[in-house]
Every structure is written in C-alpha cells, then in structure tokens.
Amino acid sequence: MTIRLSPPPSPDEWSDERNSPQKSSYYDRNLRQGPALIRARKPYLVKNLAVGAGLWCFAGAVYWYTLRAVGQDEFEDVKVPDTPRQPTKSN
C-alpha cells in the first residue's frame, strides 16, 4: 500500500487573493452586527449586564462611603494661619 502525498503549495499560492474563499465577517457593509454575531453574544448578555451592574454598584458605594467619611472630618488638627504669608522680596 503506497500513500501518495501532494507537494505543499508554493508561497505564491498561499497569498493568492483570487483563490481564497470570501472572507466572512460578523458585520455587514454598514458595520452593524450581523445575525451570527448576535447569536454568538446572546449567551453572555445577561452575565455581562449582571457583572457590569455589580461593578457599577461597588464603585458607587466606594464613592459614596468616601464622601461620607471625608465629609464628617472637621479638620481640627490642621493649623490655619491667622494672616497669609507675605511673599519674600528678592533683588
């Protein structure tokens, strides 16, 4: 039993655009999502929305807590001078 192998294609044949199949895309001519892309993204839509909402709530809670914590500080330990400093004269 003899196996005959065909020779590998030459580099010219690899880059020949005329012989390559039509390139598929998930977007149409107007760069809108195609049906295949919508089907591919559908299983992740709810999970991504849940993660996004959770991150948004966490960031909002950190922001709210920070403003509440800083807003309660009276800054009594900061010394404020009675008169502003005069600029030094340099000749």
From TrEMBL:
Residue ranges of the region described as Disordered: 1-28
Principal place of residence: mitochondrion
Subcellular location: Mitochondrion membrane
Signal peptide: none
Pfam families: Coa3_cc
Keywords: Membrane, Mitochondrion, Mitochondrion inner membrane, Transmembrane, Transmembrane helix
Biological process annotations from GO: mitochondrial respiratory chain complex IV assembly
Cytochrome c oxidase assembly factor 3 mitochondrial coiled-coil domain boundaries: 37-77
Record field: transmembrane: 45-65
Topological type in the membrane: Single-pass membrane protein
One GO term describing the cellular component: mitochondrial inner membrane
Positions with biased composition (Pro residues): 1-11
Function (record text): Required for assembly of cytochrome c oxidase (complex IV).
Assembly and binders: Component of 250-400 kDa complexes called cytochrome oxidase assembly intermediates or COA complexes.
Family (UniProt): Belongs to the COA3 family.
Name listed for the protein in its UniProt record: Cytochrome c oxidase assembly factor 3
The organism's taxonomic lineage, starting at the top: Eukaryota, Fungi, Dikarya, Ascomycota, Pezizomycotina
